[in-house]
Design brief:
The chain is flat. About 55% of the residues lie in helices and about 0% in strands. It contains eight helices and two strands. It is mainly α and about 180 residues long.
Length: about 180
């Protein structure tokens, strides 16, 4: 004779509970996947994954056509400066080179390239200013201990000297978001 810890009724209830829990989990997982596929707005995701965040992190220009499509409030296919949020009006209003009140993809792309060049020039000027002896390298003595601790990871060849190229190459890695 065997003694059972649970009665047949209890076994049956446990089985129903486990099966119900499994089915509920499967339904929730399926609905979560469906929600993710539609981005929560009911429309299926037929486009490639957005690269805008990566472009911003790497200081590359975003896709101007996608930006125009996203911000075009009246749906006329043109991006009027007035349709932009207030901060963007100030920043991107300068991109309207022909002063017609609308931004074309070419104007946005040219503006982004101009800003990229200006950023590179500013970084080069900062490097030259920090390079006190003008030898083309930054050392701990030139930048100080506190800043050296932040930038020494860029020293690819471990010679305790940083070139502008080493800093530029290390910049995208430094901007990566923390793992979640």
């Amino acid at each position: 004779m065997t003694l059972s810890l649970f009665s047949n009724t209890a076994h049956s209830a446990i089985r129903r509970f486990v099966l119900g829990s499994f089915l509920a989990t499967a339904v929730l997982a399926g609905s979560g996947a469906a929600y993710a596929a539609t981005r929560g707005n009911g429309a299926a995701d037929t486009q490639a994954p957005r690269q805008d965040k990566d472009a911003r992190r790497d200081h590359r220009p975003r896709d101007p056509a996608r930006l125009i499509k996203r911000l075009d409030k009246n749906g006329d296919g043109k991006l009027a400066v007035a349709e932009l949020p207030e901060k963007a009006q100030k920043r991107l209003g300068k991109a309207d080179t022909n002063k017609d009140g609308t931004l074309s993809a070419e104007e946005l792309k040219a503006h982004a390239e101009q800003r990229t060049k200006a950023r590179a020039a500013k970084q080069q000027a900062r490097f030259v200013r920090s390079d006190k002896n003008g030898d083309g390298f930054l050392t701990r003595d030139e930048v100080g201990d506190k800043r050296w601790e932040r930038v020494k990871a860029a020293d690819a060849n471990r010679d305790n000297k940083l070139t502008a190229d080493e800093l530029r190459a290390a910049r995208p890695a430094r901007k990566q978001p923390a793992a979640r």
